[in-house]
């Protein structure tokens, strides 16, 4: 079913976070890079918000806190110092990052602030060793023209990236702090985007401006989009961490479908006559029923001395297994809540039973025990009493929200475009001043100086790419939207390879390789340039480019020369071509005798099949024609 986005009243706001390519981190001199080796340094912390810092406890902060997790941080010396470890106050703000953000702000017609104030934003999921993220607004009230529509830019900020999560083992989370402190620019639009496609267009337009500075990082994880999405009668949902631009429309469509489905469920429950007070926090110990169960998860839990607790959700039959949107069901939403609030592995519910080794008899006994009627669903959990009760309380709360419609929450994006529950929506007033970093004044002269040397605007660059390099509009746009828009011109100038070949490689071929799972971001700009120099010098055929890129991505640090050698791609010399042509004629002498010059097609095909990427097709064709003529 097509969705009429105007009719459902879709409103989307974007928040784009892009890592900046600076010489050092935002508040210290460490390298803004990630490391792959085993960590040299580890330390354990448990974060807790202090009442004085928070004023009143923020629900989102409290939520993370109450989960009782411990955090193991990993670091090495090149990428972290005492600042990231929260053992030393932050150094002064990195002005290189501020300047990049100001250039973006001015290109977006935003008004720079007179004075930059660094603020602390409470984050206690452990991704910041301090318990907060440092952020500062550098400009306000910009505007971006996207296909004739003025999209308001609310603010442009600079902030520190968080530590990256490496794993989770029972109640311990592992974070690596190499990423902590890498400068990010945040660009926030007003909630005036009315369709998934428009969201993608706005994101691309902002991306073009960011890349025009020539000072942004590229590769997986260097850009992250957060969204807020609402529809009429629905709720404002925050979705965090969309990593691929192409995924934005999918995430938005899925979220609209999810909200519409939840509204339908609300209406269905009303039609079934259900009221909130009918859903009761009555939890029954049903361990006895599962003493002999064939369900491995439950049996293991019982063997560990845990119990099985159940709750009845009246009149919910059939609704938990309904697909809200691709990959999302009400039962899963309840399970996500139960996992977070109850620290359990998951839930079982009768909408999906018998299954998982649970028999129809067990389900029947369960229904009898909690006095469930045909139209009721029973949800149950196997865990310690405390966890199981917390989990079922969260399920009951989620069930009650279903009667009200769509609950406000923060969700996280999955790589397939679906989303999962992350935490409740944060309350207001999460910011307070960072007292360790003094404010920075921005003088009018400084701003004027930046204004006088702004980079070329994307639309100007588009025209220039078409004019100077003979690219058509489509290819020129693709170059502009790719991460290689700067590199493109360098390569063309220094390699002498035809601009369309360079452009196609950096856009379509890179995309295709990425789709095939090739980690193209591992191939550095220098390597790409070297590769095209090989092609330009006639040492490598352009047909071999994808294979070389693939090889280089798997052999970081190795040279193009080594790639060519290892892949057996070195070009045949003129002498070798002569030999190959002669041999091919000799081997296929029957065809040549029969068809004379007509043998050209099949023979050429055979040679190219064997030597594509290693010979210049024109040379082969000339030679082959001459030989065939002589033969006849
Ligand atoms: Zn540092």
Head-to-tail CA distance between termini: 66 Å
Q: What fraction of residues sit in β-strands? A: 15-25%
Shape: globular
Radius of gyration: 30 Å
Helix % is 40-55%
Computed structural class = alpha+beta
* Major sheet: 11 strands, mixed
Number of helices: 22
Low-confidence residue ranges: 51-55
Q: How many β-strand stretches?
A: 23
Provide mean pLDDT, rounded: 91
Bound molecules: zinc ion
Structure in words:
The chain is of the alpha+beta class. Helices cover 41% and strands 20% of the residues. The protein has 22 helices and 23 strands. Strands 1, 4, 6, 7, 8, 11, 12, 13, 20, 21 and 22 form an eleven-stranded mixed sheet that branches. Strands 2-3-10-9 form a four-stranded mixed sheet, with no helix packed on it. Strand 12 and strand 13 form a beta hairpin. Helix 8 packs across helix 10. The protein starts with a helix and ends with a helix. 39% of the residues are buried.
């Amino acid at each position: 079913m097509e969705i009429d986005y105007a009719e459902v009243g879709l409103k989307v706001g974007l928040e784009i976070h892009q890592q900046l390519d600076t010489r050092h981190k935002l508040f210290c001199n460490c390298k803004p890079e990630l490391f792959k080796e085993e960590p040299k340094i580890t330390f354990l912390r448990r974060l807790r918000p202090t009442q004085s810092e928070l004023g009143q406890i923020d629900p989102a902060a409290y939520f993370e806190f109450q989960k009782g997790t411990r955090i193991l941080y990993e670091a090495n010396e090149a990428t972290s110092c005492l600042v990231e470890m929260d053992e030393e106050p932050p150094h002064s703000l990195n002005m290189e990052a501020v300047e990049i953000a100001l250039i973006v702000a001015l290109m977006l017609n935003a008004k720079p602030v007179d004075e930059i104030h660094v603020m602390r934003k409470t984050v206690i999921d452990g991704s910041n060793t301090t318990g907060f993220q440092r952020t500062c607004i550098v400009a306000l009230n910009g505007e971006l023209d996207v296909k004739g529509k003025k999209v308001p830019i609310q603010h442009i900020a600079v902030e520190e990236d968080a530590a990256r999560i490496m794993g989770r083992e029972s109640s311990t989370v592992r974070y690596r702090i190499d990423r902590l402190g890498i400068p990010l620019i945040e660009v926030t639009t007003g909630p005036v985007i009315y369709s998934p496609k428009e969201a993608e267009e706005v994101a691309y337009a902002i991306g073009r401006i960011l890349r025009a500075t020539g000072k942004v990082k590229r590769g997986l994880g260097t850009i992250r989009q957060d969204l807020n999405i609402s529809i009429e009668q629905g709720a404002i949902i925050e979705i965090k961490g969309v990593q691929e631009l192409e995924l934005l429309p999918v995430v938005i469509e899925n979220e609209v479908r999810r909200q519409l489905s939840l509204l339908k469920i609300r209406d269905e429950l009303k039609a079934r006559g259900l009221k909130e007070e009918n859903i009761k926090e009555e939890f029954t110990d049903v361990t006895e029923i599962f003493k002999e169960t064939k369900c491995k998860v439950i049996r293991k839990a019982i063997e560990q001395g845990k119990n099985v607790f159940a709750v009845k959700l009246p009149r919910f039959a059939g609704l938990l297994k309904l697909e809200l949107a691709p990959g999302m069901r009400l039962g899963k939403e309840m399970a996500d809540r139960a996992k977070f609030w109850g620290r359990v592995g998951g839930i079982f519910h009768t909408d999906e039973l018998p299954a998982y080794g649970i028999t129809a008899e067990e389900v029947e006994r369960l229904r009898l025990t909690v006095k469930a009627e045909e139209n009721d669903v029973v949800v149950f959990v196997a865990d310690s009493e405390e966890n199981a009760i917390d989990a079922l309380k969260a399920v009951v709360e989620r069930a009650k929200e279903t009667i009200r419609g769509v609950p406000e929450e923060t969700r996280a994006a999955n790589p397939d475009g679906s989303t999962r529950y992350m935490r409740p929506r944060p309350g207001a007033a999460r910011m307070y001043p960072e007292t360790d970093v003094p404010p920075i004044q921005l003088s009018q002269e400084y701003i004027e100086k930046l204004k006088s040397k702004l980079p070329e605007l994307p639309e100007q660059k588009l025209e220039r790419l078409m004019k100077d390099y003979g690219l058509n509009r489509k290819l020129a746009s693709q170059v502009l939207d790719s991460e290689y828009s700067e590199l493109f011109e360098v390569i063309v100038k220094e390699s002498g390879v035809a601009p369309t070949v360079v452009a196609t490689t950096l856009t379509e071929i890179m995309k295709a390789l990425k789709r095939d799972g090739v980690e193209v971001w591992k191939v550095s700009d220098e390597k790409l340039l070297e590769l095209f120099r090989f092609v330009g010098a006639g040492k490598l055929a352009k047909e071999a480019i994808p294979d070389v890129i693939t090889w280089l991505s798997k052999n970081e640090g190795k040279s193009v020369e080594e790639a060519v050698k290892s892949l057996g791609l070195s070009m045949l010399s003129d002498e070798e071509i002569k030999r190959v042509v002669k041999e091919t004629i000799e081997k296929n002498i029957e065809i040549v005798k029969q068809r004379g010059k007509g043998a050209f097609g099949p023979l050429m095909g055979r040679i190219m099949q064997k030597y594509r990427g290693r010979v210049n097709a024109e040379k082969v064709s000339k030679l082959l024609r001459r030989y065939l003529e002589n033969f006849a």
